[in-house]
Amino acid sequence: MSNTHRADERRFLDERGSSAALAPNGLNPATIMEKAVRERIIESYFWKEQCFGVNEADIVDRVVDHVSFVGGTYGVTQKPTPFLCLAFKLLQLAPDDDTLDEYLRFGGDKFKYLRALACFYIRLTRRAERVYATLEPFLEDRRKLRRKGRAGTSLTFVDQFVDDLLTKDRVCATSLWQMPKREILEDLELLEPRVSPLGDIEDLLEEDELEMNGGANGDARSDSDDEGVIKEEEGEEDTRRRRSTSGSSRRGRSNSRDRSRSRDDMEVDRNDKSSGDER
């Protein structure tokens, strides 16, 4: 009976993985996923139909034919996704590093969900330095992925999915084991400092500060120039007003003088006429 391959794969769970070797990170592959999730997987129709008698090469065919989204469980009944079922099958098969490299490189270039599955499995079973060194290059993969969960289907990307594996504690209905931070591994000389494709972060921050300061200075200069123009315009308006008021005052004075002169002339004429009449 020990060589019998059961359709429901309960032997892997009943023995709690005692007959299988531990994962490279020291965890028991049969208990990496929660008990409730494992029970849903082995009771699912996809597991019984598509995961019976499957080897490492068949995993590629199953991913290509049946995996169209990533996720853990979905729907009201919390049905496990084909992605999660195949991840659990990989925990049972325990593929070596060469097989995983084929999943990631050659197969992953053609089938993005195969790459996502391999990244998820590596995050569950490999040591921290191996996880960082293997997953970080795929932060440049901009291909789209569909994610299905309790809230429905949403859009994500390969790089975002990999970033979730490196930063979050729970992905695809699975609690991820807590890895040490990258800075600690760098201090222990287990990892080389990571070089971002964007360049040095400090240089980028300095450039942003210079741009912000330059823009602020330019705005200040433009504001000062605008204020100078406004002041010049106000000064010109004041001079025009002064000129207009002075001109109007001069005109008023000249008019009053003319009026006074005309009145004097009229009085002189009247005096002349009166003197002529008396004569």
Task: Give a topology summary.
Blueprint (H helix, E strand, L loop, with lengths): L9 H5 L20 H9 L1 H6 L5 H11 L6 E2 L4 E2 L1 H12 L3 H8 L1 H5 L1 H14 L2 H8 L8 E6 L2 E6 H10 L2 E2 L2 E2 L6 H6 L13 H78 L1
Helix pairs in contact: 4-5, 5-8, 8-10
Q: Would you give an account of this structure?
A:
- The protein has 279 residues and is mainly alpha-helical.
- Helix content is 62%, strand content 7%.
- It is built from 12 helices and 6 strands.
- The protein has helices at 10-14, 35-43, 45-50, 56-66, 82-93, 97-104, 106-110, 112-125, 128-135, 158-167, 182-187, 201-278, and strands at residues 73-74, 79-80, 144-149, 152-157, 170-171, 174-175.
- Strands 1-2 form a two-stranded antiparallel ribbon. The protein has a two-stranded antiparallel sheet with strand order 3-4. Strands 5-6 form a two-stranded antiparallel ribbon.
- A hairpin with a 2-residue loop joins strand 5 and strand 6.
- Helix 4 (56-66) packs antiparallel against helix 5, helix 5 crosses helix 8 and helix 8 runs parallel beside helix 10 (158-167).
- The longest helix is centred in the C-terminal third of the chain and has 78 residues, at 201-278.
- The termini are far apart.
- The mean pLDDT is 79.
